Amino acid sequence: MERPVQMRLLHVVGARPQFVKMAVVHRAIARHTRDSSRTGRIEETICHTGQHYDTGMSRVFFDELGIPEPQRNLGVGSGAHGRQTGEMLAGLDAFLVEEPPDLVLTYGDTNSTLAAALAAAKRHVAVAHVESGLRSCRKSMPEEVNRVLTDHVSTILFCPTETAVENLRKEGLGDPVAGGALLAQNAVVLEGTATVDAPWIVNVGDVMYDSVLHHVGRASEGASRWIVDLARSEHALMTVHRAENTDDRDRLSEILEAASDLAEEGLPVLFPAHPRTVAAMEAAGIVPRSADVRVIEPLSYYDMLGLLRSARIVLTDSGGVQREAFMLGRPCVTLRDETEWIELLKTGMSLLGGATRQRIVEAAHCLLSRGDAGPPPRLYGDGHAAERIVRVCLEWGRRSLAR
Ligand code: UD1
Fold first, then answer.
1. Are 154 and 120 found together in one domain?
2. Would residue 241 show up in a list of annotated catalytic residues for this protein?
3. pLDDT tens digits for range 155-198
4. Which residues line ligand 1 (CB under 6 A)?
5. CATH code at 82?
6. pLDDT digits (tens, 9 = 90+) for 186-236
7. Do residue 151 and residue 29 come from a single domain?
8. 51 CA to middle of ligand 1, Å?
9. What is the pTM of this model?
10. SS3 letters for 174-213?
11. Atom 2 of ligand 1 has which residue's CA nearest to it?
């Protein structure tokens, strides 16, 4: 018989991809709560750091994905990374004192992720990191610094893949649960309890896969009218937001030139542009050469899924969009010199294009000439990552919390 436990869990989110990931975990907690046969209760609190604040970058995700209103919004907004992270840290520190949780759940690799992990670690509150173990092995990327530091102060490391598990093992964080294989669906194979000095490293699968499976069928009903119309026409879909691309005029200009080349060959490119990218294009005086590169506003989740699903090819520097393209069976040129999601490259559905016009266009031609590769292999679990996360959190609570 499982020992009942009552846990207080704080989700900290701030940037677009974190809303999507948290929505999946929140839904799994709600399902657990509704199931009266389950012992253990989780009381959730949400803190939004305010890193993303435009309606199209934040509000729309809460509305569309049915995420409850955050108890606190720190309203940090934009700024230099150190200052932005520092302001979050101060706000979170105060919130942890006001509403002390048993466990802080932090997601991905943004400045909000790191601020949550540090604030909790300094208050001796346990941290669980969702999407742990990803590495580009390039610490000039702000996201790499955020991931490495977050993993090293976390008590539960929820990995999406075996590669991620292996990265943590190499960094000396310990032996993974079940040898790093995807955690069995119902068996509890955890030993002792986790602490920040001896964390649990658990392969649960990718919450983004849970999310795609849950929402893809709803995307056509949920998508805006104009997106449904756009999705009918043949197109490529492009997103660019990484600092390494937006803050380097040459790289940004090469990417836009490659997009224009594809558009001029007859494949219009839809480009929902992150505000950072729009600002960088304006500052550098970059305007797409072809009118068939259509710069549009950032999209809601359903609109994005709709356009991804119907795209002939995807061009992106986003980790999330790379995986979503794969999960929806679309070929993808990754606009980076490396990727944390290396298993994608082995499938042949994803190629690195870097940020040079010729390489991007050649990669796109290569993928387009291959035709439909059929259903993609399963790389990211079985669509039940969030259920595993809830189960492991409760198991940790049973073993670690006195009440
Ligand atoms: C952040 C994450 C990145 C994640 C991405 C998802 C870090 C270091 N990076 O990058 O890992 O993939 O979110 O989108 O945390 N801005 C607005 N409105 C907004 C938000 C941002 O105009 O609602 C503009 C501001 O000019 C800001 C710039 O975008 O300065 C960059 O925003 P920031 O939060 O620093 O990082 P992202 O580029 O969004």
1. yes
2. yes
3. 999 999 999 999 999 999 999 999 999 999 876 667 789 999 99
4. 15-17, 51-54, 57, 78, 109-111, 142-143, 241, 274-276, 279, 318
5. 3.40.50.2000
6. 766 677 899 999 999 999 999 999 999 999 988 777 778 788 788 788 999
7. yes
8. 7
9. 0.95
10. CCCHHHHCCCCCCCCCCCCCCCCCCCEEEECCCHHHHHHH
11. 110
